[in-house]
Amino acid sequence: MEIFPGITMDAGVRFGRPCIAGTRIDVATVVGAIGAGDGLDEVQEAYQLSREQLLAALRYAAHVAAHLPPAVREVS
Question: How far is it, in rounded angstroms, from Cα 52 to Cα 57?
Answer without folding.
Answer: 9
